[in-house]
Amino acid sequence: MTTVVLHDLLIGVAVGIAISLVEVVPYIRRRFSVTCRQHHHGVELSLTGAVTCKDVPKFLEALEGLPEEQALHLNTRRLRYEDHTSAETFTDRIRRQTKAGQRIEMTPPRNAQPLLGRIVKQFATATG
């Protein structure tokens, strides 16, 4: 009896991992890039591609290198995918910077997946 349950449990875990990989693989091929441009009215940070947990350090490094006294415009128009880990990091960091007094604006993604749509709503709530 225990062997059957253990066998079924292992099959369930393997199937779950396989389904997760099938869901994420198309987005991993779309490289994540961050472009920073200085404007007279502040800084624009453009996010492009697909951001996953492996890209969180790159994203945080880009945010930490920005001057806090200038307005920040996040251009996520070309962002196609964001996993849960990066979404939570993104939202938490924006909340912290907003509480510290930095003015932040965001251009939402064109073809937002449900998670990105939720992040845009959370961002709107956090900033005003």
UniProtKB/TrEMBL annotation:
Residue stretches spanning the membrane: 6-28
Highest rank taxon of the organism: Bacteria
| Keyword terms of this UniProt record | Membrane, Transmembrane, Transmembrane helix
Its recorded name reads STAS domain-containing protein
Q: Which organism is it from?
A: Paracoccus amoyensis
